Amino acid sequence: MQKRRVLVTGGAGFLGSHLCDRLIESGNDVICVDNLFTGRKDNIRHLLNNPYFEFIRHDVTLPIYVECDQIYNLACPASPIHYQRDPIYTTKTSIYGSFNALGLAKRTGARILQASTSEIYGDPECTPQVEGYRGNVNTMGPRACYDEGKRVAETLFFDYHRMHGVDIKVMRIFNTYGPGMDIGDGRVVSNFIVQALKNEDITICGDGSQTRSFCYVDDLVDGMIKLMNSREDFHGPVNIGNPGEFSIKELAEIIIDMTNSKSKIVFIPLPQDDPLQRRPDISLAKTELGWEPKVNLREGLSKTISYFKSVI
Question: Which of 65, 109, 143, 169 is 20 to 30 A from 122, alpha carbon to alpha carbon?
Fold first, then answer.
């Protein structure tokens, strides 16, 4: 089988590094592009001596000129603590990064996949969220840099397809967790596990009744690769996530139980525009990709807790 030349922007991040691992294992020639704003070289250190892996430190808001057959566009800070640190740069990364990646796909004829997000649904007025739902978003809020940046990126993808025939795929990623998460990324799974392992108070925003669905990273990468290699006339958008729905308080209680922690749950004010519900309808992914998650929450948390024990 001829090796594919695959470009992964944001390839040193949590999801990107897992994707690079899988692509290398599958016999591809991988180019990882990351400016390490939130990505970490430690995530890809084990790949640096592989002759079929290349790391380029580069900011995707600037054009890059390489030859490739496929492009996975993952570059963007993804946790609130990171994307709110420099909201203007976050917006630029989503928009200019997509513009430059699409320009590269147009020149090379590469198929390109956009890692979009469930955040484009905002604080949804319906559950579960289906791809046809247009969202309930606040363009002026502190989360807008990420939400709106990803919405504009989707617009660019479909316009490049309509105007220039670029071969696009768009996936909407729901909450994902697993080994390799950054201890300080501010996401709820990593926060709770670290606090539980240290026997510190577990801090829940609001009253903990808000819900999320949690997809294990291996399942997410499976869905991403299936979408990239799906039939030519299917472009998405398609939800990729685990439809199992848990309240934030339930998640905290499960993690306390699994870690035998002495942590107590404490409640702090809910941040502005924090969604009260998040659950994907994955009917389209099942029909078009033959994909659905395989790893249940406790199984995935067990692997994630083991990882954090090794790095704390």
Answer: 169
Catalytic residue among 83, 121, 146, 177: 146
DSSP state of 265: E
Whether 307 sits among the annotated catalytic residues: the reply is no
Q: Vertex 241, ends 238 and 243: CA angle to 5°?
A: 110
Q: Report d(CA 252, CA 212) in Å as an integer.
A: 12
Instruction: Examine the pLDDT at 1 and tell me if it is beyond 70.
Output: no
- Residue among 121, 169, 163 at smallest CA distance from 281: 121
Comparing 22-36, 177-191, 250-264, which segment has the lowest mean pLDDT?
A: 177-191
Spatial distance between the Cα atoms of 149 and 151, rounded to a whole number of angstroms: 5
The reported pTM is 0.95
